[in-house]
């Protein structure tokens, strides 16, 4: 077991470096980098200054552009005065110390930015995660037990319709219906909490938070219900049709005992093994469309703005953190097989 864990941890290093290298290489060929954007801003500012002074003596000649010395200073400010390989090596050394650098445009550390946006994404991700598991597993079991019944057909139709509706479209519909668009104003339009949240009592704070999070979580979770419910149903159907179930029935065991003592334990194995990855992923899930629609300043919006503004420290730093957490989650998922299924072993010759 420990040999397998050590091997997987060592394999994470080239995987992580490879992902960062590919992204870093692509970035080098993307036009409109931070230096180009700053040159454009300074040029526009210089032209505006000349126009305001009627073409008189201006300290900066906007139409003439930046001098080579000014351009070199600007490249040094953003770290582009070094060769690409050297910059990549310096970045890896910093990342090994978990130093993600400083944002070009926010002028604060990337860690501080991620931590500041994390509560919003965690709120959406964790609630979506728990609601999905709490709804889909009981519903999937009920559908498997009542396979082919009117209940099974009705619930399948409902969850498939929900799966077919994009989360952004559903969010718009929820805002129109319940956000004061054209019908009822039952929920707020934006934000995670009210402006006077700090002045509220404990119970009122909790209620205010749940009041704000209802619509975005609903828009996020509906699309996830179909996949997990159908997966749960199929896994339980497969177990119900196994030979040991027929044997248990022949021995006179009740259907309830067979389902919850034998089938339930075996059928949950493939569901539980995906639990660690889904749980860790919930901390960093960020939906740009949902966050934009409900005016939530989370990781999804941060990632999008960083790509658009070519804020490379934020792009690479967030990619590093998310990739590392994804690799760790995958390892935990594999290890969970051993914990829930004694037949699985990672020892030599044990698989």
TrEMBL record:
**Chief location:** membrane
Keyword Transmembrane helix tagged: yes
Stored SUPFAM superfamilies: MetI-like (SSF161098)
Membrane topology field: Multi-pass membrane protein
Q: Where found, per UniProt? A: Cell membrane
User: Which GO terms are recorded in the biological process aspect for this UniProt protein?
Assistant: microcin transport; transmembrane transport
Annotated ranges, domain ABC transmembrane type-1 = 118-333
Instruction: State if Ion transport is listed as a keyword.
Output: no
Q: Which UniProt keywords apply?
A: Cell membrane, Membrane, Transmembrane, Transmembrane helix, Transport
Question: Which sequence ranges are marked TM in the entry?
Answer: 9-30, 120-141, 153-178, 209-232, 267-294, 314-333
Gene Ontology CC: plasma membrane
What the entry lists under CDD domains is as follows: TM_PBP2 (cd06261)
Task: Spell out the family assignment given in the record's similarity comment.
Answer: Belongs to the binding-protein-dependent transport system permease family.
PANTHER family listed in its UniProt record: INNER MEMBRANE ABC TRANSPORTER, INNER MEMBRANE ABC TRANSPORTER PERMEASE PROTEIN YEJB
Protein's UniProt name: Microcin C transport system permease protein
Which species? Pseudogulbenkiania subflava DSM 22618
